[in-house]
Amino acid sequence: MGRFYPDSKVEIQGLSARFYDNLLNTASLGAYSSFIKKAIRQMCIAPDDAILDFGAGTGRNALLMNSYLSGDGEVLGLEISEEMLIQFQRKTENFNRINVLDQRIDQPFTLDRKFDKVFISFVFHGFPLEIQKNILRNAANALKLGGQFIMLDFNEFVTDETPLYFRIPFKIVECRYAFEYVERNWKQIMSEFGFGGFTEKYFLRNHIRLLTAKKESNETSYDIPG
Ligand SMILES: C[S@@+](CC[C@H](N)C(=O)[O-])C[C@H]1O[C@@H](n2cnc3c(N)ncnc32)[C@H](O)[C@@H]1O
Between 72 and which of 16, 48, 121, 183 could a Cys-Cys bridge form, CB atoms 3.0 to 4.6 Å apart? Predict the structure, then answer.
């Protein structure tokens, strides 16, 4: 499958997808495991939450979220990479309340039910602004009123003001969409899609943020396409 956004680095395929979890563990010298556990703990998952995971990856996050759920909760991943879908299915095969669909998150879609939480982890920064707005619209459509959009991703910052130990790898590893993403005011943009009641938790010396936004309205100032 070709890439929709050739300048993006979140359309992960091939060997990088097949060894994605190992690559993160190795690149972070083992720190990623405890970081992601800590971040997911901060999502305050209720036992009966229905959670939609946008760009779900290997299923690692789905399993962590599932550990907070009772038999009434569920995690549904949306993913497009064949290698990621295979790993997700393999990792979660013994959990009938965790499932994954081969579904793009950047184009309109409809599901047969509404969710309490939409989680998106290290995916959002990798798209152009108009596509990020499509993703926000899709999240708003998929959530119950009062449900939460929870984004784990880079914080907002001026890249050239960040310390070198962060700036150099960020500039080497990330794409131009990420450079634009970090300099935008996301709470303001999200409010145009009916989100409010924002809370933020920070990690890695404030360079990573878990942003929670509540769906407060069914109205948005953007038309739904199609
Ligand atoms: C950087 S990885 C993050 C994976 C996972 N969320 C995590 O935190 O481990 C980005 C993921 O988004 C998926 N992805 C990229 N574009 C997508 C799209 N348009 N629709 C659904 N998934 C997408 C990729 O296949 C990949 O699994």
Answer: 48
